[in-house]
Amino acid sequence: MKVVVFDDDPTGSQTVHGCPLLLRTDATALRQGLQHPSPLLFVLANSRALEPAVARERVAGICRSLDEALRRIAAEDARLAARLRPLVLVSRGDSTLRGHFPLELEVIEQELLGGPDAVDARFLVPAFLPGGRTTVDGIHLLHGQPVHTSAFGRDGLFGFDTSDLAAYIEAKSGGRVPAAAVQRLALAELEADPEALTARLAALPSGAWVVVDAVRPRHLAAFAAAALALMTPAAATRWRRPRRFLFQSAASLLNALVEPELGAPPLAGARLAALRRRDGCGRPGPGLVLVGSHVPLADAQLAHLLAVDPRCRLIEIEVSRLARVLEGPAPGELLASLEGAWLARLRQVLDAGQTPVLASSRGELPCRSSSERRRLGLELAALMARLVGALAPRLGFVLSKGGITSHTLLESGLGCSAVALQGQLLPGLSLVLAGDLPVLTCPGNLGDAQTLQQALALMQAEQPRTGPGPGPPGC
């Protein structure tokens, strides 16, 4: 079995480890990813940052490359082809319901599963249990409160006004899927006889939309076991044929799909922090904190970090100033001048032995349209990525807050085609290696006010040198 995850930003791997995260998505890269021994393959689309039409084409292009890679494997490597069955396709989206839903799911089913008439059922599973996102009676909750009442429901691009997932599907599908037609797997069904649950899924009408409740890992484990039992080739013996299921989920379902095959993480806590890059003398390199996310939780984490850690120095990119430059005459020359000034300030902070905190100004700048908002967001992320990329050779690690920010940093700022996921330093905060540089990816919507400061403290804690003997002469 292989679970291929179309991730709309790089934070969907926040509960797993040991798998590749692809930023390059041509057929050759995807074939290499499919050859990896992990049961999981993440393909980073960064689609949440894009206009709907561009996101559609981005996901469609990935699908076509994946189809080509699978056809090559089928023709050239029968053993690998067998190991990939069943191929489980997951569109990993935000646990607070922001994103291009159901657009990405519809593209995947059209490009890879033969269209909507060929899909047996689609499952919406937004629970992310470590982050307090649960679903009860079809209502999606954030720490026990309906998620649409949170700041995420008021998101400027992806806002929504209901936490009833059936009504959410109806609204986001433009009424094409009536709420009354959406089915639900209740907690009682997920806690009952596994055979009955499997039979329930087998009896779903063709093309069904199904919302899955979840409060505990066992609920997702029961659902995953029943769904996978119907997707394997062996399902034909009892259930006439394997089912074609498609999943829109947050991160927690991924664990349920691949455990126990995934196994325990080889690195955790201090051992992850010990990946901090060192110089030739064994001295730990300095850290840099990057904060692009503008949600209120990110604001609180940034404020707490600056108040508590005296070594941190803020270098703020004023978003309104950036917008004026981009709209004015000679934007390239003006932006290059500003970029040089910001880079000089960052270097001064590093030279002083302090920790630079590169952050966008807080709040959402009013924009004339969603297209303008997205363009400004991409320009901001690209600017921040270039600044960090210029400093990368002298850094020991980077903490990157925000999914789009992190994706742009990895792909553009650090020039990665793929990164290796090591594990979670704190719940939901994944550490990846971009070459030998550790990058801690911190979702914008996760944690409490202390989380960013705690993560930085863990990464800066002095770790014993593990290399042989003293460093070179002169150290």
Notable features of this structure?
about 475 residues; Molybdenum Cofactor Biosythetic Enzyme, Chain A; about 20% strand; Rossmann fold; alpha/beta; 3-stranded antiparallel beta sheet
Structural class: alpha/beta
Gyration radius, in Å: 23 Å
Main-sheet strand order equals 9-10-5-11-4-1-3-2-16-17-18-15-12-14-13
Uncertain ranges: none
Span between termini: 50 Å
- Sheet-strand content, in percent, reads 15-25%
Going by CATH, the homologous superfamily of the largest domain would be: Putative sugar-binding, N-terminal domain
- How many domain regions? 2
Main β-sheet, in a few words? 15 strands, mixed
Average predicted local confidence, pLDDT? 94
- CATH architecture assignment of the largest domain: 3-Layer(aba) Sandwich
Categorize the overall geometry. Answer: globular
Descriptive account of the structure:
By secondary structure, this protein is an alpha/beta fold. It has a 15-stranded mixed sheet with strand order 9-10-5-11-4-1-3-2-16-17-18-15-12-14-13, with helices on both faces. Strands 6-7-8 form a 3-stranded antiparallel sheet, with no helix packed on it. The longest helix has 25 residues, at 52-76. It contains 17 helices and 18 strands. Helix 1 (27-35) crosses helix 2 (52-76). 40% of the residues lie in helices and 19% in strands.
Concise summary:
The chain has 475 residues and is α/β, with parallel strands linked by helices. The protein has two domains: 2-258, Rossmann fold (3-Layer(aba) Sandwich); 270-460, Molybdenum Cofactor Biosythetic Enzyme, Chain A (3-Layer(aba) Sandwich), CATH 3.40.980.20. The protein has helices at 27-35, 52-76, 78-83, 103-112, 165-172, 187-191, 194-202, 217-231, 235-239, 252-258, 270-273, 296-308, 319-327, 331-351, 370-391, 403-413, 451-460; strands at 2-7, 20-22, 40-44, 87-92, 121-125, 133-136, 139-142, 145-146, 183-185, 208-212, 245-249, 287-291, 312-317, 355-360, 397-401, 418-426, 429-434, 437-442.
